[in-house]
Amino acid sequence: MFENGYFVRAMGIRGLTDGLRATYGITPEQLGLPASVFEHPMTLIPVSVLNQYYENIEQVTGDPDAVLNLVSKLNIEQLGSISRWFFSGHDLASTIRRINFGITCIQSGAYLSGEVVGPIIKWTYRNNSISAPAKAHDGVRVANFMCNVIKRYLGEGFTPDRVCIPGTQQNKIKYERYFGCAIEWGHNQTEVWLPNKVRLAGSKVPSLPAEKLSMSFADLDDYLNMPDSQDHMKVLYEVVNYSRHFGLPTLARVSELLGLSEQQLQRRLQATGLNFTSVVGYVLSGEAVKQIALGIPLEQVARSLGYRNMTSFSRMFKKYRGLTPKQYLANYQMA
């Protein structure tokens, strides 16, 4: 039903965004992303937006190597509570297994795996939802993450035997100097090669106390709330939810994010007995309920959903929930 059915969490690119501001003085809005997207690390961003984001970084900075400059300064522990689970493993092999399994909670369409080839382990990353112009930037970002994970166990002096990256960059020597090894460009996936014998190496970084490894139910719910690309209604829900960061969701914006014309989206909704207005009402009222449960003031909830006044927000909410926001809040507080 929808070709663009993949997402990345805001936490996955927050480091790049912060780095752009600090290094180049560039704000998220200059790259086409409202700042409100990054107020919550779990926000789901369509991968079609990520693809354009990579291209915008190069265009706005005027630096084709900007992504490399930015990822070199990233902290791999900026992924919230899931990073504590990733790095609580007792050796490199267990950490790689956890990351391979857990990556889809952060970015759908992304697949990490390990392959033993004689004395070499190839840690590989594949993501077919990344567009051709963005593949090199995305490959550099993930290869840097992989290498930083490995360095936790093998020390800062670790250099991979080889790095393979999709796409190509002109200043190849700069990338070889950064990674400290030969780089093969034009691959269909990102690969970091390391000796098989080091897979059981212990962490060089002190482990976190066990009591700090727990994850709240809210965090767990958010991490598991990553749409399957074939769950078309869930994909549509999250695309509409993302578009509210620009104001009230419009047919034009949602259609564009899904890679469809307005007419195509309308026809596909009609085929399932839905219309765009009802979908938007369902999504916004659902998000309002979540925010009310978190204790967010009603006026702030209305603004976050794109409403400029409480009257319009209350009218929508009552239509889809049967109560005004104030009535719903009162019932919730009494429960």
List its salient traits:
alpha+beta, Tscrpt_reg_AraC-type_HTH, Helix-turn-helix domain-containing protein, DNA-binding transcription factor activity, single chain, transcription, 2 domains, two-stranded antiparallel ribbon, five-stranded mixed sheet, Arc Repressor Mutant, subunit A
Question: SSE layout and pairings?
Answer:
Elements: E1 7-9, H1 10-24, E2 44-46, H2 47-61, H3 66-71, H4 81-86, H5 92-102, E3 110-117, E4 120-127, H6 135-154, E5 162-165, H7 172-179, E6 183-185, E7 190-195, H8 217-224, H9 232-243, H10 251-257, H11 262-271, H12 276-293, H13 298-304, H14 310-321, H15 325-334
Parallel strand pairs: 5-6
Antiparallel strand pairs: 1-2, 3-4, 4-7, 5-7
Describe the structure.
Strand 3 and strand 4 form a beta hairpin. The protein has a 5-stranded mixed β-sheet with strand order 3-4-7-5-6, covered by helices on one side. The protein has a two-stranded antiparallel ribbon with strand order 1-2. Helix 9 (232-243) crosses helix 12, helix 12 (276-293) crosses helix 14 and helix 12 runs parallel beside helix 15. The protein has 15 helices and 7 strands. It is an alpha+beta fold. The radius of gyration is 22 Å and the shape is globular. The model has no long low-confidence stretch (mean pLDDT 91).
